[in-house]
Amino acid sequence: MSRVTARRRTVRLSASGETRRPDTLAVEEPLEIRLGGRSLTVTMRTPGSDIDLVHGFLVSENIIGAPGDVVSARYCAGTDDEGRNTYNVLDIALRNPGPVPTRAFLTTGACGLCGKTALDEVRTRTRFPLPRDSFTVDTDVLAGMPETLRDKQSVFDATGGLHAAGLFAPDGTVLAVREDIGRHNAVDKVIGWALRENRVPAHDLVLIVSGRASFELVQKALMAGIPMLGAVSAPSSLAVDLADESGMTLVGFLRGDTMNVYAGARRLRHRPLARPAS
């Protein structure tokens, strides 16, 4: 079995009785991120694309802005009860190392930031302000992106328990898809991919997420210079406020041929389906 999934015994109860069988679950393990040997943070994630995850996280926190800012990323020694490397500690060496931040990160629920303070903090920290009119996307093309994202979720098919994030070109071409038990980690993974591919600032890309659009996901997109974020579910009020004030296009309830546009409608080209004559 891949390390992203694990098997556990379960008892399935139904109207016809009970059945004992193994079930496939998404793996959740801690990843400690270190800068120059000093602990920066620990995130719970699904193993896989850890290098992308760390690069994306460091972009989101304004610690790096280009792939050359990272000299090396290596797993530190750490073993389980059977002596195997757990690959749960990544140490990052930066080209221009500075003090390791000690504040709580915006991506944590206990950051203590709210309302106008949070909006001002993110807007002033981003290295990549959004261009006003970088591209437009046909709404029928945007509507097809969640289905493409879903088709690429191989681990979700096995477990039913992972979020996904995908980066798309404006014509609907999917460029990168990552899965994780945490929606913020899935976004960090695709942002890290973009950075390592020299596509940050991502002024020509669309970010699609499988769940809701929270404030932290909008701020991650903003920190990477992504002008458009589409979510299958609802946004939060603060997510809408940040998108509106930063000039981002934010679309929620992106399902089938319907969607709610909460900010930045100018980047969408709507082509309603022609109704047959009565």
From TrEMBL:
Entry's Gene Ontology molecular function annotations: sulfur carrier activity; sulfurtransferase activity
Keyword Magnesium tagged: no
One Pfam family this sequence matches: FdhD-NarQ
Family: Belongs to the FdhD family.
Protein function: Required for formate dehydrogenase (FDH) activity. Acts as a sulfur carrier protein that transfers sulfur from IscS to the molybdenum cofactor prior to its insertion into FDH.
HAMAP family, sorted: FdhD
Protein name: Sulfur carrier protein FdhD
